[in-house]
Design brief:
Helix content is about 55%, strand content about 10%. The chain has 13 helices and 8 strands. It has an 8-stranded mixed sheet, sandwiched between helices. α2 crosses α12 and α7 runs parallel beside α9. It binds ligand LBKI3ST6 and [(2~{R})-2-oxidanyl-3-phosphonooxy-propyl] octadecanoate.
Length: about 375
């Protein structure tokens, strides 16, 4: 292991990265709070400002993936569709097998200039997470309880609000509703069998209501569905802790652009369309596993330097006062103030570790497990 690798895997580096993320993130949350009065005077300006502020947080995740761990993300897509990416609103339908799929998603959003404005249908539990969850309130992210009876009105209302959004956005949908595990897969295939649907090998059976309600409510504002399939080379299953330790992975993403007008309007027809899409996605995954590649050509989608620049700026901004504080603490501080500072740092480290834990499939919810549809 080289010196740089050793350094990247050192806990002190992780603590510094965690501190920069939490301190800058909470500062940005505070700035977002300050934009509240602006919503009354100029809603569109408030939204644009919040997109920029949100970028300050989510691009740190991209910097971690692209620049710190050096993970490569390769795009397979039709070159004819490529110029449209980032220039129109799209619904992204992605498989949900990996703990860092959201980071790869963010990385592609960044490359196409839609990171600050990117949206997702996300479980309500994540709304309470400091920094990310609080940022999402101001970005008008759509939250769901994964209980259709309670979600149907609220989700439709949140979606309707996005119709006049001033920035181009990608709306991410994990139609499987939860991360892939062997047990959830087995149970969802029992449901598929009962419904007379073909079995899927690499996906859970998609939940169709969220997709239908999204397509219905964003019609006219969203132009296309981006059917996306993500996998990692060498059968790797990357983790956020691995990325934090500087481990390099290689992601491959296949994107297929499907015009929204080709999707049926009726609920049953739309559900059937989605089930067919998942059978095709399953075939693409099988092809990847057999051949190590997705169909179609590789299109170069270069990284931009802005996530790194943003990260360095925030690091200077929050590490400098920390340094000054630590020097004065050591030189003039009482034992009590040193103890209080140590306790505070330990609590912040625990919060950071807890946030990372939210990405871990082994700590995932029981939703989709037997007798626990909504756990
Ligand atoms: C590549 C570019 C990427 C771009 C990235 C862009 C943006 C990035 C932005 C942010 C990144 C951050 C990422 C954060 C990640 C976190 C994401 C999540 O939180 S995923 C979880 C939340 N999302 C969803 O659940 C979406 C999918 N779910 C739905 O659509 C649901 O329908 C619902 C609207 C949530 C409602 O949930 P409910 O449980 O009530 O579902 P249903 O009514 O659909 O369920 C009943 C239905 O399902 C059948 N059933 C029962 N058991 C199962 C089972 N195990 N598997 C499948 N189906 C099952 C049951 O028979 C019912 O069937 P029917 O509909 O016929 O009645
Ligand atoms: C410098 C930059 C540092 C960045 C460090 C980032 C620190 C930690 C940030 C955590 C951010 C987490 C935000 C997204 C969490 C995504 C978790 C996820 O994918 O949710 C799963 C749900 O879909 C389904 O849940 P399950 O039913 O599978 O359970």
């Amino acid at each position: 292991m080289g010196l740089v690798e050793l350094l990247k895997s050192h806990i002190l580096c992780h603590l510094i990265i965690g501190y920069v993320f939490l301190a800058s993130g909470l500062l940005v949350n505070l700035l977002q709070l300050c934009t509240l009065p602006l919503w009354w005077f100029n809603k569109q300006l408030a939204r644009t400002v919040n997109c920029r502020l949100g970028y300050c947080i989510s691009s740190q995740g991209v910097a971690l993936l692209d620049w710190w761990s050096g993970t490569k993300c390769t795009l397979y897509t039709d070159p004819k569709d490529y110029p449209m990416y980032g220039k129109e609103n799209g619904i992204v339908v992605l498989n949900h097998n990996f703990e860092v799929d959201f980071l790869c998603g963010w990385s592609f959003c960044e490359r196409f200039g839609v990171l600050g404005s990117s949206k997702v249908l996300v479980k309500k539990e994540l709304a309470y997470m400091p920094v990310i969850g609080w940022m999402w309130y101001f970005l008008e992210i759509v939250f769901c309880k994964r209980k259709w009876e309670e979600d149907r009105i609220a989700v439709a209302q949140s979606l309707k609000r996005l119709r006049d959004y001033p920035e181009n956005f990608w709306f991410l949908l994990f139609c499987e509703g939860t991360r892939f595990t062997a047990q959830k897969h087995q149970i969802s295939m029992e449901v598929a069998e009962k419904k007379g649907l073909p079995k899927l090998k690499h996906h859970l059976l998609p939940r169709t209501k969220g997709f239908w309600v999204t397509v219905q409510n964003l019609r006219g504002s969203v132009v296309a569905v981006y059917d996306s399939v993500l996998n990692f080379r060498n059968n790797e299953t990357p983790t956020l802790l691995g990325i934090l330790s500087g481990k390099k992975y290689h992601a491959d993403l296949y994107v297929r652009r499907i015009p929204l007008e080709s999707i049926p309007e009726g609920e049953a027809e739309c559900a059937a369309w989605l089930h067919k899409l998942y059978q095709e996605k399953d075939n693409f995954q099988e092809e990847y596993i057999q051949t190590g590649r997705f169909p179609g050509p590789i299109v170069s989608s270069p990284q931009r330097p802005w996530p790194l620049v943003n990260w360095l700026c925030w690091s200077v901004l929050v590490l400098y006062p920390l340094g000054v504080f630590l020097v004065s603490l050591v030189s003039t501080g009482s034992t009590l103030s040193i103890l209080v500072s140590v306790a505070f740092c330990s609590a912040a480290s625990l919060v950071f570790r807890w946030m990372i834990g939210q990405t871990e499939i082994s700590r995932g919810s029981g939703y989709g497990n037997k007798g626990n549809n909504n756990g």
